[in-house]
């Protein structure tokens, strides 16, 4: 059994929602870490490095489709692969 261990380049914008145009399954197969304003975040749903924002759930609230409501936070974003 052969595994593909080459990690693709981290995109500028990435989403974990499969219906998003910024969803990238090849990248999400690896453990991607996000630092926002120097603090590691584990609840990021979407990020954009060049525009400097992340989207995170706004508590337990849901939209009419049952998806979590997201808030957009602005600041320095760093994405990386965890070992």
Automatic annotation (TrEMBL):
<dbReference type="Pfam" id="PF11730">
    <property type="entry name" value="DUF3297"/>
</dbReference>
<dbReference type="InterPro" id="IPR021724">
    <property type="entry name" value="DUF3297"/>
</dbReference>
<protein>
    <submittedName>
        <fullName>DUF3297 family protein</fullName>
    </submittedName>
</protein>
């Amino acid at each position: 059994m052969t595994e593909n261990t080459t990690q693709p380049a981290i995109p500028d914008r990435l989403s974990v929602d499969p219906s998003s145009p910024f969803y990238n399954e090849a990248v999400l197969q690896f453990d991607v870490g996000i630092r926002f304003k120097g603090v590691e975040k584990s609840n990021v749903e979407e990020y954009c490095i060049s525009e400097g924002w992340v989207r995170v759930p706004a508590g337990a609230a849901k939209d009419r489709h049952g998806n979590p409501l997201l808030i957009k936070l602005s600041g320095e974003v760093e994405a990386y692969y965890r070992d």
